[in-house]
Write a structure and sequence with these properties.
Length: 352
């Protein structure tokens, strides 16, 4: 799905560290009525039931402006997919792959980003995004789009991961649920960062995770325990200051956050998969969080409070990210561990 490309309109530098392609239209829209929607995508979204409706919801905020996909590793097919299926929603659709800090400070690259009226950060490797873009003019340009120009922004998988105030960008194998629960300072947890990259105000004090339900030969464990462990680590690293929040998505789930900070969830409308979880600390810090010892965060079975919304093609539920308490269309759960992975539980709250 990744195809290197050299556009005659933008010649790559000698190190060949960025690629740009315009798939349709010309990036010169003067539209000025974008709505700063945020779309978080749990990964593996292609051809899922909620994808079309979530995409249309997001593109309504673009107001026929210029749509830009940002990634590393060469341009892909996201911009072309928009052209093929949603041409009436955009003035233009293009991709920009940035693969070095040198390219991330290139004035032509920066102008392409600043001119965008919608930004989609693709999946891939969030460690590359952190290595190539953090501390560069690209970082400033992305934050300009979010906080000054206030355009719609979306991220899937790695692209979603870096939108949180806290984010996990491993330069190694990603940590498993069992590893972080059985040792919250496992060496694969060392790349948890805070507030030094992308700044999305409504995601303050939030850490995100994606692919929660994925199981395959390369991913032997689900990630529910992993995001729980991330929250425990963030609490610890933040000197036990509460609250801390998390948003975890199963594959094919879309969290659509409007300009008022209210989230709804798109998905397949079944009882299996494509759920979103909005997690928050519940007034107590972990009882045990030490190197080489199992995490204990019990609080009488109420360590973390989570609101689960099952996505539908029409969009379901509501969750207010301003107060993290006003919610409808889903159900509350408690997450806790009495000791490591074996003690980790997700328990529905019978009444709320």
């Amino acid at each position: 799905m990744i195809r290197p490309f050299k556009n005659p309109e933008m010649t790559d530098d000698e190190s060949d560290n960025f690629h740009y392609i315009s798939e349709c239209g010309t990036a010169n829209s003067t539209s000025a009525t974008q709505t700063p929607y945020i779309l978080l995508i749990g990964g593996a979204e292609g051809k899922t039931s909620g994808e079309d409706s979530a995409t249309k919801w997001f593109l309504k905020g673009v107001d026929k402006g210029d749509y830009l996909v940002l990634r590393s590793g060469g341009v892909g097919r996201q911009a072309a997919w928009i052209c093929d299926n949603y041409r009436d929603f955009v003035s233009s659709s293009a991709e920009l792959s940035i693969d070095s800090q040198e390219a991330a400070n290139n004035p032509r690259v920066i102008q392409r980003i600043r001119d965008a009226e919608a930004l989609f950060i693709a999946g891939g490797d969030q460690n590359e995004y952190e290595d190539y873009w953090e501390g560069t003019a690209v970082e400033k340009a992305i934050n300009y789009l979010i906080n000054q120009k206030k355009v719609p922004i979306a991220g899937t998988s790695a692209g979603m991961a870096i939108l949180g105030d806290y984010y996990y960008a491993p330069a190694h194998q990603g940590v498993l649920s069992s590893e972080i629960l059985n040792n919250p300072f496992h060496h694969n947890t060392k790349d948890i960062y805070h507030s030094d990259f992308i700044k999305v105000p409504i995601l303050k004090n939030v850490i995100t995770d994606t692919h929660l339900d994925r199981i395959d030969k390369n991913h032997p464990e689900k990630r529910y325990g992993r995001i729980f462990g991330f929250i425990a680590r963030v609490v610890h690293e933040n000197d036990n200051q509460l609250p801390v929040f998390g948003i975890g998505l199963e594959e094919g789930a879309f969290v659509a956050i409007d300009d008022k900070g209210i989230a709804q969830v798109f998905g397949n409308g079944t009882t299996k998969g494509q759920d979103a979880y909005f997690l928050q600390t519940n007034g107590a810090v972990p009882e045990q969080i030490k190197q080489d010892l199992p995490l204990i965060w019990n609080n009488n079975g109420q360590a973390v409070k989570a609101y689960k919304i099952s996505g539908t093609p029409e969009g379901s539920g509501q969750f207010d990210l301003n107060n993290w308490s006003t919610a409808s269309g889903g159900s509350w759960e408690y997450w806790f561990t009495t000791g490591g992975k074996s003690g980790f539980k997700q328990k529905p709250i019978q009444s709320q």
